[in-house]
Design brief:
The structure is a homodimer of 231-residue chains. Chain A is an alpha+beta fold. Chain A has helices at 6-11, 14-22, 72-80, 93-98, 109-113, 217-225, and strands at 2-5, 28-29, 31-36, 42-47, 51-55, 58-64, 82-87, 117-118, 127-128, 133-145, 150-162, 182-184, 188-198, 209-210. Chains A and B meet through strand 1, helix 2, strand 2, strand 5 and strand 6 of A and strand 1, helix 2, strand 2, strand 5 and strand 6 of B. Chains A, B: Residues 32-167 form the Flavin reductase like domain.
């Protein structure tokens, strides 16, 4: 095993350190955040830091880094109070990555990278038409993190759109079937292969592998073989 | 496409809603958080909300939900000021999931699920010996999120341990080679298949696919065919 301490981190080349530390948290979500400015100019931003905060109300967070350059996305979110989050699927991962280039505020990343803006249900922010799972988010809190001057944006999901077949009987969404990609580090993209869904863990109870609909595979086999069931 | 609005969310069964909303953010990291209490009792907690906050200093965040039950992990973090974060690899994903069962404070999840506590470099928290990428974290901030009474824990990475071969020439860590798993929803685990690393995106410059060491694959081919190089 290779060991790095805080002192070692400090002595690393800046680019090497950024790639190393960005690899540590594990697989990250790949999302495109859509916004528009006061004039209706559209903006699209690649974000790998979207994370779940709660289900009721439905809350998501993301980390934005203001750095020293203007950040159109944050400005637009503050202006309209709405943004969209769009899953990056396999067939658009290169366009999504290109959207992270520093285009000017008057240039639309949609046009530059070849993705299609789409307006749904009166939301004041563009969706990505090519995305198979996307949702509109109402800004709820903007919390500056003084520890390193990044910004935590918390929002509430108010409209969800998803390919129907991917939504399973118990509410689980099979995003693998949508070919949603995962990100590692700053620049690597992955598709996935499911190992299993697992039953809710309880002390002193063995885990069961579940099928995609959240049913115990073994129980399912039993009920199918039992003539007294499903008669 | 299936459409849900805020009103639809409110009318869903609680369990259905939890599974649906937890699926939205995309692929999540799978990590085991190791702590110990004042008496040295070890604790292990499955967390799918660890996310990158910054590289210099090296900061990670995670969301904890206090709910109405005592949360040993948070109590222990506050007591010692240290915790460990350990990647969940394919061969231990079922044990990791079982660690989410509600064991008592005097019961060690390590023992209950069959994982091995390991102490390294004087850190006052146990690592998971079976994990191939793990790091010690010094607590920096505990921020209650008043919006839904969850807690954002921010810490600084102070020791990193990783299988050497996985660390590439430019600092990127190939966590796919470690068989680190990704999580979707509340209970589904996935291994991954790499599509590509991509070059840093710039306006008006085509993207290049990079090899695992972060080198332009095409440039690499050129230099290998050029007798004036590597002579």
């Amino acid at each position: 095993m290779k060991h790095f301490s805080t002192q070692d981190f400090a002595m690393l080349d800046k680019q090497y350190r950024a790639k190393l530390i960005n690899s540590l948290s594990g697989f990250k979500s790949a999302n495109l955040v859509g916004t528009q400015d006061a004039l209706g100019n559209t903006n699209l931003s690649m974000v790998s830091s979207v994370f779940h905060i709660g289900a009721d109300p439905a809350l998501v967070g993301m980390i934005m880094r203001p750095d020293s350059v203007p950040r159109d996305t944050l400005t637009n979110i503050k202006h309209h109070g709405f943004y969209t989050i769009n899953h990056v699927c396999r067939d658009i991962f290169q366009q999504a990555h290109q959207a992270s280039a520093r285009y000017g505020a008057q240039e639309s990343e949609f046009e530059k990278v070849g993705l299609t803006p789409e307006y749904l249900d009166g939301v004041l922010a563009p969706f990505v038409a090519e995305s198979r799972l996307k949702f509109a988010v109402k800004m709820r809190e903007i919390m500056p993190l003084s520890i390193n001057n990044t910004i935590l944006v918390i929002g509430e999901i108010c409209h969800l759109y998803c390919v129907s077949d991917a939504i399973k009987a118990d509410g689980y969404i099979d995003i693998e079937s949508l070919e949603t990609v995962a990100v590692t580090g700053l620049d690597c993209y992955h598709i996935t292969h499911r190992l299993s869904r697992l039953s809710y863990a309880k002390p002193n109870k063995p885990l069961q592998c579940l099928n995609l609909d959240g049913e115990d595979s073994a129980a399912l086999i039993r009920s199918k073989n039992d003539p007294h069931q499903h008669s």
